[in-house]
Design brief:
With 445 residues, the chain is an all-alpha fold. Helices cover 75% and strands 0% of the residues. The protein is built from 20 helices and no strands. Helix 2 runs parallel beside helix 14 and helix 8 packs across helix 20.
Length: 445
């Protein structure tokens, strides 16, 4: 017998509450919290236990099949960009381009660019060494520069693939083959978020006195040229975007095949990884295996959480909730905007409760995947907008249960009290801006 809408709704509320309680208050790893909640949901909607386990296995494997290689290769690319010093070269070049007069804008831009392939935590730790020297040369204080850098990193880390959150959301929503569309739309949405980040960093950081943070500085001159530092980061983005060119203009069949090969996200990221490996100098060659091992270890944790999110989504999908809600959702003239708001709120609740943006994106996209088509989200562009809305929720808000909050506070020299009234408010503004951007873009897709 099929479960009723009320029964499914109650099961969802209990399951989501369970995830929050397990991760936030009982310190259970998100992977196990998702597995337990999947089983509880299946039991509450009356599914046979073994059928629930089978659905979980199917959802887990299906999701990893779609994004496993992307997350692994992307993690290795980010690690090599960090260890070879390419990230620092990028930061220094951008600062030189903008000049010390526009140091806050330079820091925001650095964060946006570096945040695409590199986790925001490690990105801020490495690039925070630029803050002291910039503050000494410009009219901006250290707090403003720290907020600009942290919010820039946060923007693209949460919104733009190939970071794991957006990739997992695309896989959950079953449009992984259209990553270029997601990348294009999320980059557009990132523009207003970055603008808000810039102005709020100036405003909120103005009255904050940040302490001097001593960071380990590499006194050896980094001999990597600017174009070599930027190439492993920018070329994969260009290649992935190029895969969409045949949809716009008519080209020779052989050229179309070539673009589709090099524009495949896995191939494009592997090309970037090879280019980043070429930046390793002779004395660091022996360190490369340990760097890759660390990157793959980090990727493995993310993939386990992502797969568990896929398992949860698969169990929800088999409950029949999409069929039960189809008529209700489709009868609303503003169904798309309502669905975007629902996505944002669920993601924001999860983010605020358990701290991880990536987990919030994975769980929310898993929950909403069975309902997306019924709500009118069918095309890659529409689904991309939905991912942006989920990402906006996953920004709202960063506080004491988020590791990134403490990274920004400690390495930025900002007291926890000041971080609450600056960085936490800044992430709220970022999330709301991403929501508004998703609603606006939805009107045109």
């Amino acid at each position: 017998m099929s479960a009723s809408l009320l029964q499914i709704s109650i099961a969802l509320i209990i399951s989501i509450t369970g995830i929050i309680v397990l991760t936030r208050y009982l310190n259970v790893h998100a992977f196990f919290a998702l597995l337990v909640s999947s089983i509880v949901f299946g039991i509450l909607v009356g599914k046979p236990f073994l059928e629930t386990i089978s659905s979980m296995q199917s959802g887990f494997g299906s999701l990893l099949q779609q994004i496993g290689l992307l997350v692994a290769v992307g993690s290795c690319l980010g690690m090599l960009m960090e260890k070879t010093g390419a990230m620092e070269v990028i930061g220094q070049r951008i600062i030189h381009f903008f000049g010390v007069r526009y140091s806050v804008l330079a820091m925001t831009t650095i964060g946006i660019i570096v945040g695409i392939p590199v986790f925001c935590d490690s990105g801020f730790i490495i690039l925070s060494r630029l803050i002291s020297s910039m503050a000494a040369q410009s009219s901006a204080n250290s707090a403003q520069l720290s907020l600009a850098l942290s919010s820039g990193l946060y923007t693209t880390h949460v919104l733009v693939p190939p970071t794991p959150g957006p990739l997992a959301a695309a896989a959950n929503l079953n449009f992984s083959e259209h990553i270029s569309t997601l990348m294009f739309i999320s980059l557009i949405a990132s523009i207003p978020v970055a603008i808000v980040s810039y102005f709020f960093s100036i405003k909120l950081g103005h009255s904050i006195k940040a302490s001097q943070v001593i960071t380990e500085v590499n006194h050896e001159e980094n001999k990597i040229s600017a174009w070599k530092a930027f190439l492993p980061l920018l070329l994969p983005i260009v290649l992935i975007a190029s895969a969409s060119i045949p949809n716009i203009i008519t080209l020779h069949e052989n050229f179309i095949s070539l673009l589709r090969i090099v524009g495949h996200p896995v191939v494009a990221l592997m090309i970037g990884l090879i280019l980043s490996a070429l930046l390793i100098n002779g004395k660091d060659t022996k360190e490369m295996p340990s760097w890759i091992s660390t990157a793959l270890k980090d990727a493995g944790i993310i993939l386990l959480i992502t797969g568990a999110g896929g398992a949860f989504g698969a169990v929800i999908k088999t409950s029949g909730i999409d069929v039960l809600l189809k008529d209700y959702v489709s009868n609303s003239s503003s169904q798309g905007i309502i669905f975007i708001l629902i996505a944002f709120v669920i993601s924001a609740i999860l983010k605020t409760a358990q701290g991880s943006s990536t987990s919030s994106i994975i769980i929310t996209s898993s929950l909403l995947a069975p309902l997306a088509a019924s709500a009118g989200f069918v095309s890659p562009a529409q689904l991309s907008v939905l991912v942006v809305a989920i990402g906006g929720g996953a920004m709202t808000v960063s506080h004491a249960n988020d590791s990134y909050f403490w990274v920004v506070s400690q390495f930025g020299g900002i007291s926890s009290r000041d971080a609450f009234r600056s960085f936490t408010l800044l992430t709220l503004a970022q999330g709301l801006t991403a929501l508004l951007a998703s609603i606006l873009i939805f009107q045109f897709v």
